[in-house]
Amino acid sequence: MILAIDVGGTKLAAGLVAHDGTVTRSVRVGTPQGADAETLWRTLVDLVSPLSAGAEGVGVGCGGPMSRPGGDVSPLNIPGWRGFPLRTRLAALFPGVPVRLHNDAVCLAVAEHWKGAGRRTSHMLGMVVSTGVGGGLILNGRLVNGRTGNAGHIGHVVVEPVGGPRCGCGGHGCLEAVASGPALTAWALAHGWTPRSGGVRSAAEAVDGGVQAARDGLEPVRAAVPEAAPARASVGGAGSGASVGGGGSRGASARAGEPGAVTAMAGGSGAVTRPGGERGDPAALAGARVAGAGETYREDRAVTARVLAADALAGEPVALTAMCRAGRALGIAIASATHLCDLDLVTIGGGLAQAGEPLFGPLEEALREHARMRFARRVEVVPAALGQDAGLVGAAALILAGERYWG
């Protein structure tokens, strides 16, 4: 068995993964907010200790940036770790077995390529849209690491160069500063959103996510919300007449992570597949269903983003505008990545991947507008297939799949 570890801004997870990629046991705990380096380390040690006996190797996914091969980490969403020697600490804790560490978003991409929606393609970008926005790049069937091992940080591709919000990385207009859960929530609250859907007891609870985002330097763009945002928004190409319903029905027959929930067809027609397996036809997008949110681990900040998505589905104007803004930013970034890397497939995982038509409709519209080269128009965007265990599966693949993802 491989001990797999997933270190994120809202949760720490560990599990035992068999050689076929099956997670046989897993445990999760909330990431201590505002904790110092040693408190975070002790929390992680306490989490993995019950799983450590007999581990053949240790694979770790952690937020970046990080140094490779040394394995010092400085996750933007874990301020207590700056240059923390995570790999060195784990190697001392597990002497005699290989310890391999990579970016958590890279591990999610690796998981989808190895065992998920990307199994049939050699050229893909795996994205996670949650507390942050990250990615991993697979070209010619192999993971692209880049000079320092930090390739794939699509969350820091600039999508709003003029007047864009300040990002936790220190830049402005980054995709993460527009489309991450905390950024979305902060923007919506600043523009008058009051949560209507279930999941929070009061607007004050929702503000927690916005406050955290503000602490991270995520400021809303200084642009007015339309006075009368429609409950139904056109997202089709010019003359398509296509529209998506803000209050569309939820399909319960398939969930992200269940077999058959996603059909990935590399080199397809350029359609965007929604959660639940519905595909957006480039000519008409009416009637798309949205799968339930599944059982992905969430804490207050991610729950708030989920409530924002639910309000958008119900037609709340500010929530719709916020999700549209995020979807368009994602579409612009994916178009740029596709032109640069000649991708077949993009998978989108994380809590916001279940937002449905309010996110995926504007994403598809922006992708059509900006992916103009013939080869780029064939890229397909689908929800990630592996659900909450994807990070653990990808971390284990760093050991189990050898040089394919580690070299």
What are the defining features of this structure?
407 residues, alpha/beta, Nucleotidyltransferase, domain 5, 2 domains, five-stranded mixed β-sheet, 18 strands, globular, ROK family protein, ROK, ROK_cs, ATPase_NBD
Provide a quick synopsis of the model:
With 407 residues, this protein is α/β, with parallel strands linked by helices. 30% of the residues lie in helices and 18% in strands. The chain is globular.
Draw up the topology in text.
Elements: E1 2-7, E2 11-17, E3 23-30, H1 37-48, E4 57-62, E5 72-73, E6 84-85, H2 86-93, E7 99-103, H3 104-115, E8 124-129, E9 133-139, E10 142-143, H4 175-179, H5 181-190, H6 203-215, E11 232-234, E12 243-245, E13 250-251, E14 272-273, E15 279-280, E16 290-291, H7 300-313, H8 317-341, E17 345-349, H9 357-370, E18 380-383, H10 390-400
Parallel strand pairs: 1-4, 4-7, 8-17, 13-16, 17-18
Antiparallel strand pairs: 1-2, 2-3, 5-6, 8-9, 9-10, 11-12, 14-15
Helix pairs in contact: 3-10, 5-6, 5-7, 5-8, 6-7, 7-8, 8-9
Detailed description of the structure:
- With 407 residues, this protein is of the alpha/beta class.
- It is 30% helix and 18% strand.
- It contains ten helices and 18 strands.
- A five-stranded mixed beta sheet has the order 3-2-1-4-7, with helices on both faces. It has a five-stranded mixed beta sheet with strand order 10-9-8-17-18, sandwiched between helices.
- Strand 9 and strand 10 (142-143) form a beta hairpin.
- It is globular, with a radius of gyration of 20 Å.
- Residues 229-280 are annotated as: Disordered.
- Residues 236-250 have a biased composition (Gly residues).
- This is ROK family protein.
- Residues 251-261 have a biased composition (Low complexity).
